[in-house]
Specification:
mainly alpha; two-stranded antiparallel sheet; two-stranded antiparallel ribbon; 11 helices; 4 strands; elongated
């Protein structure tokens, strides 16, 4: 995993607006930066490794959730952040996957010569500092549940699969964006389904409104998800314009 040399801080205001600024290297030569600045590259790396291992793609959300919670309010540098990302992915595969990822495998994926001892030590810190009291649900879990419970009986198998594929793609795309990653997975899952309904070509406008109403009725307690739908739309547009999504956006995107 390689991280670019440019050092920056990306941070969101309470309204979810994103700003970036360049930081200078400190006197001792170490560049400090916000972990947010590198989420996009690390998220893509997580998906690549998970696909290589044949694990469920939802594990990328689990790994990034662990990484985000652990690095929140921490000052870090390039090497340390890579070590934390590797530790988070290792824990995610062990906790929510098959466990079929060995430390020697993981170490070969490091561009900074991270050691097994460092990954184990960081993993122990993550286990001791983070809350592990409940099963971590993902946006994809809610996509499956909401479509299965509320829409399956009203759709043909072909339309249902098309809707599911589109909504899952949006749920996976949301992992790249730290604003969406900070929201509850249930809300992101609902936004992904509503956006996917809007994109369906196999049904008419009236049918889309009916399906959207059913989802909105089932998720009314989630609050306003229109802003998240807008952000997902922006992410799709940016992802389609490049080989990999570039998801650090300008002010007023949400």
């Amino acid at each position: 995993m390689e991280i670019e040399d440019t050092t920056c801080v990306a941070f969101a205001s309470e309204q979810g607006r994103v700003r970036t600024r360049t930081m200078r290297q400190s006197a001792d030569g170490m560049a400090f930066f916000s972990a947010w600045c590198w989420r996009e590259k690390v998220a893509q790396w997580c998906y690549d490794v998970i696909d290589h291992l044949g694990e469920k793609r939802q594990l990328a959300y689990v790994a990034m959730n662990i990484l985000d919670r652990f690095t929140n309010h921490r000052t870090t540098d390039e090497r340390r952040y890579e070590m934390e990302a590797m530790s988070a992915l290792f824990l995610a595969v062990r906790v929510a996957g098959t466990g079929n990822l060995s430390l020697p495998q993981l170490i070969t994926m490091s561009s900074e010569e991270i050691t097994a001892k460092e990954i184990i030590a960081t993993g122990k810190l993550m286990i001791s500092e983070l809350d592990w009291d409940h099963h971590l649900l993902t946006p994809a879990d809610f996509v499956h549940a909401l479509i299965g419970d509320n829409l399956s009986s009203r759709l043909t198998e072909t339309v249902k699969l098309s809707l599911l594929d589109s909504a899952l793609y949006l749920a996976e795309l949301s992992v790249f964006d730290f604003v969406l990653a900070s929201k509850r997975p249930s809300v992101v899952g609902a936004a992904a389904i509503l956006s996917a309904i809007h994109q369906l070509e196999a049904i008419g406008a009236e049918r889309k409104l009916e399906l959207a109403h059913r989802v909105q009725s089932a998720t009314a307690r989630f609050g306003d998800i229109a802003a998240l739908q807008n952000r997902l739309g922006l992410l799709v547009n940016e992802a389609s314009d490049s080989k990999s999504p570039h998801l650090i956006m300008d002010d007023d995107d949400i």
